[in-house]
Write a sequence for this structure.
């Protein structure tokens, strides 16, 4: 049997905590904000373009683009 990855173990524990009522919606929002803002420097393409003085099309050419619920984000944590 394969050992689960760290992210899989974290996800399983998070789901367990949500299911058991240990973590609620405000907690999830705070976790998302901390990880997105403080660690990943996650920005929408339009915000990234504006903050970096480039065009939207220029932002679309960046290497670390992820899509979450239909919105594209740039991860800029270098």
């Amino acid at each position: 049997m394969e050992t689960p990855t760290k992210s899989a173990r974290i996800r399983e524990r998070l789901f367990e905590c949500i299911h058991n009522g240990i973590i609620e919606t405000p907690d999830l929002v705070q976790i998302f904000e901390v990880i997105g803002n403080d660690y990943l420097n996650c920005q929408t393409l339009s915000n990234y373009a504006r903050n970096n003085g480039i065009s939207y099309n220029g932002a679309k050419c960046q290497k670390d683009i992820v899509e979450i619920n239909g919105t594209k984000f740039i991860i800029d944590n270098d």
User: Anything to note?
Assistant: The first strand starts at residue 42 and ends at 44.
